[in-house]
């Protein structure tokens, strides 16, 4: 049995990962097995899971909440076994205007598959502020905590 990614250098492994993520679809979550190690850890602002089945469940839930979800990687860097991605996630017309920008920190295993994935993005600004009452509250808190001459005020 061959191991996915065996023999790939980390830059090539990252490109393979990007290709899978940019082409990921709700009916093809099995592709995640080719880029995540079996016991991989996945963390984002709402989830912390371990294992390929749990990671697939996170993405399945994402597709259920955001039909037509698509990822576009805007920038990437790799240094040793650490990789960084800047990305945008967009939903189709069922959630007009929903676009989330974030960063992912990946740790690559010896076979080129991801053993740890940590996402960094701001749910307050990118999600909560879209909810009518909660959005008003989040904008008020942000304005109150921002420096006096900050453009985010």
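^ structure tokens above, recovered residues below v
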């Amino acid at each position: 049995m061959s191991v996915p990614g065996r023999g790939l250098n980390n830059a090539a492994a990252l490109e393979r990962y990007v290709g899978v993520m940019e082409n990921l679809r709700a009916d093809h979550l099995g592709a995640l097995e080719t880029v995540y190690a079996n016991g991989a850890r996945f963390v984002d602002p709402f989830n912390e899971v371990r294992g390929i089945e749990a990671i697939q469940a996170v993405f399945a839930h994402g597709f259920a909440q955001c039909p037509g979800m698509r990822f576009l990687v805007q920038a990437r860097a790799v240094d040793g076994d650490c990789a960084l991605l800047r990305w945008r996630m967009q939903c189709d017309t069922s959630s007009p205007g929903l676009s989330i920008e974030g960063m992912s920190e990946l740790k690559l295993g010896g076979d080129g598959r991801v053993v740890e994935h940590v996402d960094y993005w701001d749910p307050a600004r990118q999600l909560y502020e879209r909810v009518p009452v909660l959005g008003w509250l989040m904008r008020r808190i942000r304005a109150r905590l921002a420096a006096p001459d900050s453009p985010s005020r």
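DSSP finds four helices and six strands in the chain.
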